[in-house]
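Subgroup meeting minutes
Present: P.N., E.W., G.H.
Scribe: E.W.

1. P.N. recapped why we're keeping a running log of single-chain structure predictions: easier to compare across weeks, and new members can see raw inputs and outputs side by side.
2. G.H. added today's entry (124 aa).
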Amino acid sequence: MRANEVKYNSMVSIMMPVYNAEKYLKSAIDSVLQQSYQDIELIIINDGSTDSSHKIIHTYNDSRIRYYEHTENKGIVITRNECIGYAKGDYIAFLDSDDIAHPSRIYKQIHFLELNNDIGLCGS
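Output recorded in log:
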């Protein structure tokens, strides 16, 4: 954190539904775990993947990751809603399993929302 940055005490729950994302999954997870804002939990639901997504997820040993698994594919809408149900954070963020978050994404979004209480959501 830079000297002019503010430390917030709000946990962010980051939702990551996964379905056959082995090609991009490691990069997506790493981009979350390497955020400049560290008060996060990463909720991953493997939505019945038939590739090696399960094995990739299990290579991580990070207490911020909460992992759940479907035995069959339920679809993105059901899986995202289930992720929200598991969230413990003050804020919710989404990151698809084939995306990469900029290292300061969560910090910038928290900073904006904390300074603008009249705004309920932001995206990037």
